[in-house]
TrEMBL record:
It is an enzyme of class 5 (isomerase). This is Replication restart protein PriA. NCBIfam families: priA, PRK05580.1-4. CDD domains: DEXHc_priA (cd17929). It comes from Caldimonas thermodepolymerans. Belongs to the helicase family. PriA subfamily. GO terms for biological process: DNA recombination; DNA replication initiation; DNA replication, synthesis of primer; double-strand break repair. SUPFAM superfamilies: P-loop containing nucleoside triphosphate hydrolases (SSF52540). Zn(2+) 1 binds at C375, C378, C415, C418. Gene3D superfamilies: P-loop containing nucleotide triphosphate hydrolases, PriA, 3(prime) DNA-binding domain. GO terms for molecular function: 3'-5' DNA helicase activity; ATP binding; ATP hydrolysis activity; DNA binding; zinc ion binding.
Length: 676
């Protein structure tokens, strides 16, 4: 009887790491889905190309069932999964099964055959042949360079409003013409509906499917199957879609490639952007990364010729980018600076827009009414009993909410410690800003968009639609409104309080702030007719900071050059490679003790000689969440392979360390961590 290697879903800490061996009646192709006995259960498995260990003398259990109606997963898909598992240090089974739709793993062959029949219902949207805009010279040049190829990965650095989406559409059209499939990734699920509409309009006779976490399990299965069978020509999705099975993949687009949402924060903490680049090489597909503010990692690769660099500095219609004005808060009357955070220049700019019937966007990256409530008599503040964090005051439903563990209570009528009825909000979030703007601008239609106002399905779409329809004069929002949207009537963007990130302990905070502000600025003056009088206002206590100087000049390249120089001096990415080992425990001591022990093992494995530096364990910036203490330890190496080799030798050892550490709850490794 033939032996087959089968990958089953195994938790990270189980002793089963690689494929298991089973007996089969017939030779089964690699990539086939099967059902196999595991302990007392029958589970879904994937026949793996190679690698099951033979155990002589052990009688193998037989494969219980085969999903014959499903064509096997392509070999390149198995290799992608294997690479991701190896690189991010998780088991192949975990990564492989997380990449498949949950529904698929529950079905037997007969049920699957039923689902496949229903697929016939998926059809192209139809509609009239699209009107193609005439390409700008920059778009033509970018597309020609892309078509000539050379490097399989290209970085499209295009200003906000330079027409990057049109380049994606044309590149997709080329791939389709060549008989290939295209995968288009966007950072946020919010951005999928508008993108889907644009693609459907452009490709009325092609089947387009989406893959993201907002789909029902049945939808996700249907869309996944359409991609896997090669019926769908275009797949649009969020980071999870990078694992879609696409037998004819020819192009991967990663829009807003700098966006942190491409990095998963749980399970295998993979970067969909980085995997897309790997996948492109593996499958001979072109990878097109696009952004107005590329990640410094991608920029660095483009600078040294690893990626093909495509530039589109000019906005469509020739409109200028908004003029950036810094409002020095040190010179603003105290009352305006502290009690309502709206400086006279900002109020004046808002009033001008109102008078002209134009829209303004006011950005504050903090939701809720106020980040903390305090008692004016005693020292009480609205701390979370379960976390080392304040609970946020939400006025709309009069609650105190912890944004880390979710613990929510009604706002007390008086101070819970001393009974003083005078408890006051400290600082401000978007709710309070909205209220202050409504009071200061009588008659203005003020609206707010953030995670709180868009919790219900469809609310974001309807809120955005009313902004587009001109029913809103002043829109208050978090970073949610800063990216991607093609607002046509906004001529003022204001950042109320962006300074905090300038002094963060996270070395990437500046890069993120710069990208956010530049993206936000890009929402203004998108209509060339209004671009001349569009501006961005930044309220700051540090007007001489170099980050703001680069922003004023819309000079991404200067910012990137300066920051890359600093990173090189400090030995930070992209000039070095990092991994974070995180531990969660009942006490901070227990978490750190485990990390110490792990560091000892790394020393014994020769970390130092291999060029891998281990830094001492430290508490995470929010040390306690939901009564769990968290600590982390940073590893750094100049060479990526050296770091990878150490991790591969080290992590299996760590599973064995658990026993000696009673208070330890969980641990995890984050390779190429984004936030430190
Ligand atoms: N060649 C063209 N001719 C006319 N209009 C165009 C052309 N290319 C793009 N546009 C239009 O210009 C506007 C801006 O384009 P798009 O939204 O693609 O910009 P973008 O580069 O993606 O910007 P952002 O980074 O801000 O999202 C859109 O309304 C789009 O329809
Ligand atoms: Zn909490």
């Amino acid at each position: 009887m033939p032996t087959v290697a089968v990958v089953v879903d195994t938790p990270q800490h189980s002793t089963v790491r690689g494929p298991l061996s089973y007996a089969a009646d017939e030779a089964l192709p690699a990539g086939a889905l099967v059902q196999v006995p595991l302990g007392r259960r029958t589970v879904c498995g994937i026949v793996w190309p190679a690698g099951a260990e033979e155990e002589p003398g052990v009688e193998l259990k037989p494969v219980a069932g085969v999903l014959r109606s499903l064509p096997p997963l392509p070999a390149s898909w198995c290799r992608l999964v294997e690479f991701a598992a190896g690189y991010y240090q998780r088991s192949v089974g975990e990564v492989a099964h997380a990449a498949l739709p949950a529904e698929l793993r529950k079905l037997d062959d007969a049920q699957l055959a039923q689902r496949l029949k229903k697929l016939a219902k998926l059809a192209p949207a139809g509609g009239p042949a699209p009107q193609l805009p005439e390409l700008t010279e920059e778009q033509v040049r970018a597309l020609e360079a892309l078509a000539q190829g050379g490097a399989p990965t290209a970085l499209l650095h295009g200003s906000t409003g330079s027409g990057k989406t049109e380049v994606y559409l044309r590149a997709v059209a080329q791939a389709l013409q060549a008989g290939r499939q295209a995968l288009v990734l966007v950072p946020e699920i919010n951005l999928t509906p508008q993108l889907e509409a644009r693609f459907a309009e452009r490709f009325p006779d092609r089947l387009i499917v989406s893959l993201h976490s907002g789909l029902t399990p049945a939808q996700r299965l249907r869309h996944w199957l359409a991609a896997h069978l090669g019926r769908a020509d275009i797949v649009l999705g969020t980071r999870m879609a990078v694992f879609a099975s696409l037998p004819r993949l020819g192009l991967v687009v990663v829009d807003e490639e700098h966006d942190p949402s491409y990095k998963s924060q749980e399970g295998a903490r993979y970067s969909a952007r980085d995997l897309a680049v790997y996948r492109g090489k593996l499958e001979g597909a072109t990878v097109l990364l696009g952004s107005a503010t590329p990640s410094l990692e991608s920029w660095y690769q483009a600078q040294r010729g690893r990626y093909l660099k495509l530039s589109m500095p000019t906005r469509i219609g020739g409109g200028a980018l908004p003029r950036v004005r810094l409002v020095d808060m040190n010179h603003v009357p105290k009352e305006a600076a502290f009690s309502h955070a709206l400086s006279p220049p900002l109020m004046e700019a808002l009033q001008q827009r109102l008078a002209r019937g134009e829209q303004s966007l006011v950005l504050l990256n903090r939701r809720g009414y106020a980040p903390v409530l305090q008692c004016l008599e005693c020292a009480w503040k609205s701390g979370c009993p379960h976390c080392s964090a304040w609970r946020v005051f939400h006025r709309s439903d009069r609650t105190l909410r912890c944004h880390h563990c979710g613990y929510t209570e009604r706002v007390p009528r008086a101070c819970p410690e001393c009974g003083n009825p005078d408890i006051q909000p400290l600082g401000r979030g978007t709710e309070r800003l909205e209220e202050q703007l409504a009071v200061s601008l009588p008659g203005a239609r003020v609206a707010r968009i953030d995670a709180d106002t868009t919790r219900l399905k469809g609310t974001l779409e309807s809120q955005l639609a009313s902004v587009h329809a001109g029913e809103v004069d002043v829109l208050v929002g978090t970073q949610m409104v800063a990216k991607g949207h093609d607002f046509r009537r906004v001529t003022l963007v204001a950042a109320v309080n962006p300074d905090a990130a300038l002094f963060s302990s996270d070395f990437r905070a500046g890069e993120r702030l710069f990208a956010l502000l530049m993206q936000a600025a890009g929402r203004a003056g998108r209509d060339a007719a209004q671009a001349g009088r569009s501006e961005m206002l930044i309220q700051t206590w540090h007007p001489t900071h170099p980050l703001y100087a680069a922003l004023r000049a819309h000079d991404y390249e200067a910012f990137a050059a300066e920051t890359l120089g600093e990173r090189e001096m400090a030995g930070l990415p992209p000039h070095a490679h990092l991994a974070l080992l995180r531990a969660e425990a009942r006490t901070q001591e227990a978490a750190q003790a485990w990390l110490q022990d792990a560091a000892r093992v790394a020393d014994e494995l020769g970390a130092a000689a291999a060029g891998v530096t281990l830094y001492p364990p430290v508490p995470m910036s929010i040390a306690r969440v939901a009564n769990v203490e968290r600590a982390q330890m940073l590893l750094e190496a100049a060479s990526r392979p050296a770091l990878q080799r150490l991790l591969s030798a080290w992590l299996p050892e760590l599973h064995g360390l658990r026993g000696a550490h009673k208070g330890l709850l969980r641990w995890a490794i984050d390779v190429d961590p984004l936030a430190i």
